[in-house]
Structures are given as C-alpha cells and as structure tokens.
Specification:
homodimer; 356 residues; alpha+beta; CV3147-like fold; CV3147-like; 2 domains; seven-stranded antiparallel β-sheet; five-stranded mixed β-sheet; 11 helices; 31% helix
Amino acid sequence: MREIGISELRHIARGAAILGTGGGGDPYIGRLVAEQAMREYGPVLAAELHEVPDDALVAGIGMIGSPSVMIEKLPAGEEAVTAFLTLQREIGRPITHVLPIEVGGMNSLAPLPVAASLGLPVLDADCMGRAFPMVQMVVCTLEGVLAKPLSVADEKGNSIVVDVSDNHWAERLARSAAVGMGCTALMCSFPMSGKQAREITIPGTLTLASRLGRRVEEARRDHVDPCEAVAAFLGGEVLFAGKVVDVMRASEPGFAKGEAWLEGVAAHDGAVCRLAFQNEHLVAIRDGEVVASVPDLICVLDAEGEPVPAERLRYGQRVVVVGAPCHPRWRTPEGLALVGPSAFGYSHEYAPLGTP
Amino acid sequence: MREIGISELRHIARGAAILGTGGGGDPYIGRLVAEQAMREYGPVLAAELHEVPDDALVAGIGMIGSPSVMIEKLPAGEEAVTAFLTLQREIGRPITHVLPIEVGGMNSLAPLPVAASLGLPVLDADCMGRAFPMVQMVVCTLEGVLAKPLSVADEKGNSIVVDVSDNHWAERLARSAAVGMGCTALMCSFPMSGKQAREITIPGTLTLASRLGRRVEEARRDHVDPCEAVAAFLGGEVLFAGKVVDVMRASEPGFAKGEAWLEGVAAHDGAVCRLAFQNEHLVAIRDGEVVASVPDLICVLDAEGEPVPAERLRYGQRVVVVGAPCHPRWRTPEGLALVGPSAFGYSHEYAPLGTP
C-alpha cells in the first residue's frame, strides 16, 4: 500500500478530471473536500488490487446527479461518509475497502474522506476506467455484480437505501432520490468481495490519474504543449482546437445535458466541432462527421492542459479536444451495448480511436 | 377485536372513498386487492385502539403517487407486504399492528393484505381522518412522530428505504421514489408504540367508513336521496348539484392535479362550481366564492351516492358535491398550518363548515 497525501491531490484531481471526459464532478471542489478530510484525519493508504484479501468487503463511492448543480450547491463534505455508513448498516457487516465508482475530478477523490475519517484503505482502481453518467454503466454490470443495496445521502444528512435486483432500475431509483435531494448527492454501492474486486474492477486508475495530472505540469515546465502531452500519454490524438461559440444546457432530470459548438482556430481554422454531453462528453462531431464517440474518451482542455468540466464550458473559451481509447472492456459487444452510442440514443456506429 | 370479512369490504371501500374526498385511491381496485388477499388467507381482525398494548409496534400503510396512474398501472397486490417487510427489517423488530395512514377507497383497505397474509390485526384508526395528498399531512407530524424510517415498494418487488428526520423531507424523497417507480407505489412508515397510536391516531375510522358505506345502500333501499343521507351522516351539507363540463388534469410529478368545472342543475340551475384537486379535492368555488376548503371534506358523489374519485371525473357526469367538517384536530392553528389552504398555496381564509 502507498500513502496518498495532500500534495498528491492536485495531480489526481487534474488527471482524473481529464479521464472523466467533462464529467465526474468538479476537480476543484473534489480536491477541497478531500483536502479538508485529510487535514483533519491524516493521509490515506491506497491498496493495489493484489493486496486485497479474498474475503474483503469492498464498496464503491461516487457522486450522483448533475455536476452543473454541484458547482452552486456545494457538498457539505460528510455525504460520502453518511452514504457509506448507511450502506454498511444495511449490509450488516463492516466494509473493509472503498474505491471510486468512476474516475473523475470529484469522483476519484470522493472515497478519500471516508477512507481518511474511518481509517480504511482506498483501492487503486475504479469501475469504469473513465466517467459515465449512469449507475449501471460499470464493469460490475457486465460481470453480474449488482448495485444492491445502494445508498444515497445528501448534505443535510438525509439518506435513502435502494434495494433492487437490476442495475438499470438502481439507476432509475437512485436518480429519483438524487433529484429529490436537490439534484446532487453521494452514493455508495456495488458491494463485492476482495476476490470480485480483483477480477472485475479496472486496476491502477488512481495512480494513472495522478501520473497524468503530474505529466501536465511537467509538460508546462518543459515547454511542451500540454494538450499534446495528454494525447500522447493516453495514446490518443488532438481532434480539434477552437473557441466555444455557443453552449446549450438543460438540467434533464438529474443530469447536466447539452451541447457545445466550437469554431476552429490554428490548424482547424474554418472547421466547426460540436460536442454533445450528458454529464460526460459523449460525441464529438467535426464538420458533420463523428470523430470520437462513447465509450472512447473525449477530453476538453484549456491551452494549459487543464481539464474543462462540461458544466464550466462557456462562450469565448479556447479549448482543445483530445480523443483517446477507452478501456478494452468497453469495446466488447456487451460493453458497447451498455455504454456505446446506442445506449445514449445515437444511431452512429462506434469507430474505435487510437487503433490503426 | 372484530372480524372484517369479504362482505364488509364493499361498505368500507365506498365509505372510505367518500371520506377520501376524491383521493385515497380507487375503491374498486382497493377492494379487489383486499378481497384477493382475504380469499387466500382468510378474514382480518380489526382492533380498537384501547385493545392495543402499550408496547405494541404499530406502522401505517398507504399508497403514494398519482391515483390517475394507478387506474391504468394496476397494483400487483404484493406491494404493501414488500413495503411492510422492508420497514420491519429496517427497524429490526416485529411490527405487531398495521393501520391505514389515511382513509380512502384504496388506502383504508391497503393494510388488509398485510394483515391477512401475516396474521396481524389492523387498527380501526388512521392518521388523517380523511385523505390528504402528502406524507407529512398526518396527525403524527403534529405530535412529533416521524416518518422514519419509511419504505416504498413497487409492483416489481423494488423497494426503497428513506431515512430522514423531518416529515416534509420524507414526503419529498418518498415522492421522488414513487415517481421513479412509475408514479404509484405503496409505502409503510410512522412506526410508533401502541401507547402513541392510542394517543395520536384518529379512532374508529374503519368502522366509520363501513357504516357510511352501508348507509348509502340503506338510503337507496329506503328511497331516500343517498347524497342527502351522506351529508346528514357526516354533519355536512349538499353544496352543489351539477354536471361536469370540463376537466383539466396534469400529472404534476407524483400527484394527480387538476380542476373540474360543473354547471348547476335542479336547485343549482344557472350556477357554476369549480373544484380544484391534488389527488384529493381541495377547494370548491361556487359562483366565485369559496364554499368549502381543506381541511374540510369535499366529497363528490353520483346520484346514487357512489363516490367519484377525482381521477374518474369526466365530461357529462352528473355529480353532487357534499361538504362536511373535518376532524377537529385539523382546525387548530397547527393543524391548519399543516393542511389548511396555505399549505396548498391558497390565500383564502379557512371558514369551517358545519358549525353555526
């Protein structure tokens, strides 16, 4: 196990926000909450998957709701702990390890206050290898691990337990709860054994986020283009560079849905690019052609390589769009059925990025 | 304790639907569900409040959602049992008595499948003395008894537990859950001791509903106007007789909200009456003047004295509107604050019916 201290949080937050493809919660807020908990309770131990005993009881933590709302309705900081304790009480056995349900600026850090305050290790892994907007969009669903039970907690100490035997229904009922709680809340679910976690979850993504976040700072220091550095790190490519000329947003119940239009600059002068998002960026359409699509990663960065969350996109911003391959698990037929274009209502075929 | 058998169900359903003031669920569906359970498990024992031991554990059962939806999305029949067992598991002790949360065509009967299948007595009492649309609108709220925990279950066996320390929040989160479940579900909550139930709940309302339902049949047999008989039974008055000329409905998330316009016939020829409802009838406005208002009862009947649920109002129907006094508990300042006109966004003053 290795120690994660306060100084590493900014690297994880940045890297995870890039991997979070516009969603996964605001990295700045996520960092503040984790930092506060670490100042109070000390650093956190991160365990690699091979260090988890077979009979460990592992649970995932993450935010649910609309990131657009969370940048105004700030978390109180105790939500994840409330959700964790509610789930633990419901299960009736001590949970021994926590992990992020997804990689995201806030979500990679969401388990840290629980880990710090309760003295539990956090697993260096997650259930998506990126961020997706819905509860069922996890590798757990592919392997039959249920979001059962699932707890949701808000900043007032309210909590809900959802008990259903289908991850799509878990999404539906947990989303309703999150909407009732004011459109953002923290959830805890996917209880699994250490053995299951080892076999199912995507390993090393906390460390990956940390390395990626650090890589951006190194690129700046070395006068390398940080966006190109991100693309190279992820095995992807720069798809577009432009400025935001319009953003359309709707708080579709429980999500931040919308589209952003970009006009090209520099190498992309004269071209246009449209980004469609539902918490995360789902599709990038350049001059009428789909150039990147879920489940591949569509990362929007500013010129300094800082990730721009979808909820922070605004008129006039200069941004760079990087596309990168997703975890291979999502490129299988069952993976694509769960998180591919058709899962979001799109009819285009998925064309994998980063492969020859 | 007295036995409630299948033959009494039609009386209870009718009387409770009248007392349910347009809401409380469809009496026909409620009766079918209860009848089915009794055919399978036998009759149910109804206990009067004085028969309940101090240390009994009592819980209320009722439907939550939009009655308009339930007449198309029929209950499976097991919802109340699922909600009951979920609450019992959450509390960790056996619940010994069930009672209807409110009086209503479906809601007065909702605890019976639980009572029949688990062999528990049902209390001859409820928490409203009529029906109201929201979770917090119970005498329990006035006495500090919380809807904590609260369980919600649907026809697919899905369940949710809400854990909040405020009955308004319980409403909000349980309503969200019910909407997620498809706008109708069954809930179980307000756990209290036998002593609390005796001191707080409104006694005798199952028997009252049964007597009222029977009174309608007697009036018909005796060639007495059944609507006048209902008004006399309730100490109220006939406010209007007319035909429905328009109905406006919206499924405001989780409720059946709307208005109905009536044109007068017979003694009310030339007059108009407007009924505003949110599951239950809230206000009757005759020729521009409020003639009855929550928390008093506004009961809509057909010429035979059969209650017409708000979700069954339709163009061309001949109906009679009866107004009647509510339970005195609701006429106190704190009662009016919880369920009076202002609780539904109205600015009119409450003028009690049936008092000189």
